[in-house]
Amino acid sequence: IFGAPKKADVSDDGELRARQEADRKANAEAAELARAAAARRKQEEAERLAKEAKSGPASTNESNAANTEADRQAKEEADRQAKEEADRQAKEEADRQAKEEADRQAKEEADRQAKEEADRRAKEEADRQAKEEADRQAKAEADRQAKAEADRQAKEEADRQAKEEADRQAKEEADRQAKEEADRRAKEEADRQAKEEADRQAKAEADRQAKAEADRQAKEEADRQAKAEADRQAKEEADRQAKEEADRRAKEEADRRAKEEADRQAKEEADRRAKEEADRRAKEEADRQAKEEADRRAKEEADRQAKEEADRQAKEEADRQAKEEADRRAKEEADR
Predict the structure, then answer these.
(1) Torsion region of 266: left, alpha or beta (phi above 0 gives left; psi -120 to 50 gives alpha)
(2) 128 — alpha (psi -120 to 50), left (phi > 0) or beta?
(3) Does the pTM of the predicted model rise above 0.85?
(4) DSSP string covering 154-221
(5) What is the DSSP letter of 59?
(6) What's the confidence (pLDDT) of residue 197?
(7) Sequence-ordered list of residues with C-beta below 8 angstroms from that of 76, at least 6 positions apart, any chain
(8) How far apart are CA 127 and CA 258, in angstroms?
(9) CA-CA distance, 49 to 35, in Å (whole number)?
(10) What is the tally of helices (H) and strands (E) in the chain?
């Protein structure tokens, strides 16, 4: 159940990487478009300022120099504003895409956890229904066997009672006929043989005692056999119930061990996936921080170089203006 990931999971990872790569390309294209738009606005602003500068009066060399300086400063201001606008738009676009990516990942994680919870509940419900069905079938089988055993014992008891009743009636009939025959013979012989009657009566008494003894022994034998049969049936019933109890306990123990093994494997699989997810997030966080640090350092270096270049150009411009002013004054002094 908890083996290697299915092919569908691998394809989902591939689709996720493909979407991430597409998002990265889209981000790069959006940033490039933002930079192009900023450059285009900067160029338009520079052209506008140049056109305004050309349309003004240019009567003297000083006004021409002022126009040139104004054009240069306007161009620098336009470049700065265009760069700031491009950086702001790129940052807003990156923030928006990062938020969308975080929302998407959160939704995917919630969907995955919801699916796992639904699968777990479905498995628990299936296990519960299977156990209830097994218990129901076991109870039905036990009831059927108990009914069959009760029917068999009832039939045996009825057969035994019927046989005993038939034997009793046959014995009574035989006794009755024997008594009638004896009475008849005794009546026929009473007048003729008194001595033989005495002998017959003695013999009849002996026969009666012998019959009583035989009946007593037969009853004791029947009681012994009935007790032995009852003991045998009780032992068989006890053995059957003991076997059913042992089978039930063995099944419950096997089910418990199987459930414990399944729970253990599920926990190990969940721990492994959680560790992989934590490692992946840690790596993404480290990559993100490294990229932010590299971008920050690159921006600081670019700002430093831009500042040095601006300072150098400002110094050169100041030196040039000072030299022009000195030359102008020297020329005026010479002319004067």
Answers:
(1) alpha
(2) alpha
(3) no
(4) HHHHHHHHHHHHHHHHHHHHHHHHHHHHHHHHHHHHHTT-HHHHHHHHHHHHHHHHHHHHHHHHHHHH
(5) -
(6) 86
(7) 310
(8) 11
(9) 21
(10) 3, 0
Question: Dmax over Cα atoms in the chain, in whole Å?
Answer: 210
Two tokens, residue 272 = 């492994």
User: What are the residues whose beta carbons fall under 8 Å from the beta carbon of 244, sequence distance 6 or more?
Assistant: 142
Hey, CA dihedral for 178, 180, 183, 186, is it positive or negative? Answer: negative
* C-alpha–C-alpha distance, residues 280 and 67, integer Å: 59
Is the pLDDT score of 297 beyond 70? yes
CB 64 within 8 A of CB 58: yes
- Taking the CA atoms of the chain, what radius of gyration do you get in angstroms? 58
CA torsion through residues 222, 227, 229, 230, sign: positive
Answer left, alpha or beta for residue 6, where phi above 0 means left and psi between -120 and 50 means alpha.
beta
pLDDT band (50, 70, 90) for residue 44: confident
Residue-wise pLDDT for 197-256, tens only, equals 888 898 999 999 999 999 999 999 999 999 999 999 999 999 999 999 999 999 999 999
What are the pLDDT digits (tens) for 104-155?
999 999 999 999 999 999 999 999 999 999 999 999 999 999 999 999 999 9
Residue that has been written with the tokens 């024997």 in this structure: 178
pLDDT at residue 1 above 50? Answer: no
Compute the mean pLDDT over every residue in the chain, rounded to the nearest whole number.
Answer: 89
Res 284 pLDDT > 50: yes
Q: Which of 162, 169, 167, 160 is nearest to 225 (CA)?
A: 160
Question: At 100, which helix (H) or strand (E)?
Answer: helix 61-190
By the 8 A CB rule, do 2 and 268 touch? yes
Tokens of 333: 């002094």
Q: How many CA atoms within 13 Å lie on the side-chain side of 173?
A: 6
Confidence of residue 328 (pLDDT cuts 50, 70, 90): very high
